[in-house]
Amino acid sequence: MTQTILQPTATNPTQATNIMQQLIDSLTECYEFRHNVIMGYAETRPKNDPDASWSPVTEQVLNTMTIKLLKSGLNVWDRDVRRFINSTDLPDFNPVADYLSSVAGRWDGQDHIRALARTVPTDVPRRWPAWFHRWFLAMVAQWQGRDHSFGNAIVPLLISEQGMHKSTFCRLLLPEPLRSWGYTDNCTLADERQIHLMMSQMLLINLDEFNRISPQKQSGLLKNIVQLPSVKVRRPYSSHTEEIPRLASFIATTNMSRILADPTGSRRFIGVQITGPIHIPRSINHEQLYAQALAELDHGIRYWFTDTETKSIMQHNRKYHITSDAEGFFLEHFELTTDETLGQWMSAASIIESLHKKARGSFRAPTVYMMGRTLSCLPGIVRQHTHYGERYLVRAK
Question: According to the CATH classification, is domain 96-320 in 3.40.50?
Answer without folding.
Answer: yes
